[in-house]
Design goal:
Blueprint lengths: L12 H13 L5 H20 L3 E10 L3 H12 L5 E8 L4 E10 L1 H12 L4 E9 L7
Antiparallel strand pairs: 1-3, 1-4, 2-3
Bound molecules: nickel (II) ion.
Length: 138
């Protein structure tokens, strides 16, 4: 665990008031954790822009009845084995499937996989949750 360093920050009062209201809604119990999370979020954004290894998940919603679509989604995933850790398929209802693809690897490869899957005709929604491997993050 990293050493804790205490420091003061000067900010306009109305900005802090807004921040306090915001973090209260998000269930933070103190400002330190909320500030720390904001900083981590920026560091993670940088990892996705400039880093070598990131982690996250791709979520897809698609129509189960379109058979060719299922094959296409599977084919694409076979081409990206080096970044896919695991895939979970959930039958949402009679028509719709939810697929969660856990990813870890090079950011451009993960982005390319996401974009390729989203662009497949019949995929109703696709989103990428950009997270971190946790290495170097305290
Ligand atoms: Ni299904």
């Amino acid at each position: 665990m990293s050493e804790v360093f205490r420091f003061g920050i000067s900010l306009p009062k109305d900005l802090i008031d807004k921040f306090d209201k915001l973090i209260e809604k998000k269930n933070y119990t103190n400002r330190s954790k909320a500030f720390g999370d904001l900083i981590r979020q920026e560091l993670i954004k940088r990892e996705w822009r400039e880093g070598k290894e990131v982690a996250g998940s791709i979520t897809l919603i698609y129509d189960h009845h379109k058979r060719e679509l299922l094959n296409k989604i599977t084919d694409v995933q076979h081409g990206f084995q080096k970044v896919i850790i695991s895939t979970q398929h959930i039958h949402l209802d009679h028509n719709n499937c939810l697929e969660i693809i856990a990813v870890k690897g090079n950011p451009p490869d993960v982005q390319k996989l996401t974009n390729t899957l989203k662009a497949i005709k019949g995929v109703k929604h696709g989103t990428l949750s950009m997270s971190t491997t946790g290495k170097g993050m305290t």
